[in-house]
Amino acid sequence: MMARQLLLVTLLTGLSQLAAFFKLWFTARIFGVGSELDGYNLALVVPTLVAGISAGFIQTGFFPLRARLHARGDIAPTEALERGLLWCCAALGGVFAVATALATPWLADLLTPHNLPAAGRAFTLVMPYAAALIALNMVCDYLGYLLVTRGLFAVAAGAPVVNGITGALLLAAWPQGGLYCLIFGTLAGTSAQLAICLFALRHRRFALLGALPERSAFLPQLRDMLALGAWVLPGVCFSNIVASLPPVWVGRFGDGAVSAFGYAYRLHSSVVQLLLMASSTLILAHFSDLVAAGNRPAIRRMLRTAAAVSCGAGLAAMAAVWCLGEPLLGMVFGGRFDATAASRVTSLWSGLTVGLGFALLGNVFAKLWQAQSRPKLITAMAAASLAGLCIAYYSLRPILGELSVAIGLSASAAAVVLLGIRYLEPRPAALARP
Predict the structure, then answer these.
(1) Would you call 33 helix, strand, or coil by DSSP?
(2) Are residues 429 and 374 in contact, defined by beta-carbon separation less than 8 angstroms?
(3) How many CB atoms lie within 10 A of CB 124?
(4) At what angle do helices 75-102 and 215-230 cross, to 10 degrees?
(5) How many CB atoms lie within 10 A of CB 368?
(6) Which of the residues 11, 258, 291, 429 has the least number of beta carbons within 10 Å of its own beta carbon?
(7) Is 71 helix (H, G, I), strand (E, B) or coil?
(8) What is the pTM of this model?
């Protein structure tokens, strides 16, 4: 049963990446590389950052608290807690969305290059609509957690497929809509994902308008969640900042830099997800068993295997991107995505691919530290990742220009591996922990 679920989730995750590429293909043909798409990509930075931090924080506190209530057989209080947190996510998301929309002029001045007024105008056009993604993504992420607690892994993995297809179909049907088509497609896709999650939960008899938790019980539960999530919050913030800074930095290198980096980053991220989606859960489960049994030799063997596989995958990916990236992108995308755009995107994609092997191995290290219950170490490594990004970018910027951003992200992944090697041998107490 577990193997069948894993295979289904892997297939659906692969389909979600394919749907995302489908949307990327239409975006490249319609917009190419330029200031208009730069402004759109920069407008997504704040919504992505806020939703990412809230998702990591809520996830850390919600699952243990919900598991304790459910284990006691308190079904009604468990559902009341779930419902209360859902409405809290919706309310907080709404507040953040309104505040972000109102702050559009200030954010445009902060995030868009002053020498690219076209990007600033595109940002100002998109930002009030993009702000709604904060609330939509916060609720979608939380509904995904509710689906997982009910064993609906396939729905949680499959809903993003509809998200990507919806956005792509709107681009295909209304290409003359420009940025309006792009942002409305994103909003429509996220709304469709939310609707699917709600429908699946309703099918499992989860009532949105049911009883809410009593205040006397809910406030202590919120305090417990805050306490559980507090230790992981810095690490979540560091990780999301690492993902948010590069688009802002790269915008300083002229017209089209943000959109070119956006294409390269999405292609790189898809490769990482495809390589990790099936193995990530299995690695964590296997490490958990080995740590519980105190089997250090097996852990070392697994790490050596992971290092060899990550190195091989990284080298193969670098060779493929360097040799085939530019002609392949030019052939596949076409439209306004011309040869110059293909060359620029390939250059950035190559810089990101330098760190692919480190990113894969760093993920394996993180799963080991999760199995060993070492959250402080994970947070410290997230800080090292941010430090590696900043040091590499500021050191290489005068020499490499926009490529320094991509190399900075590779250095960020390398910092985790190179610093984390010394922490792979756990303390005896960590291995003995049940």
Answers:
(1) coil
(2) no
(3) 16
(4) 70
(5) 25
(6) 429
(7) helix
(8) 0.88
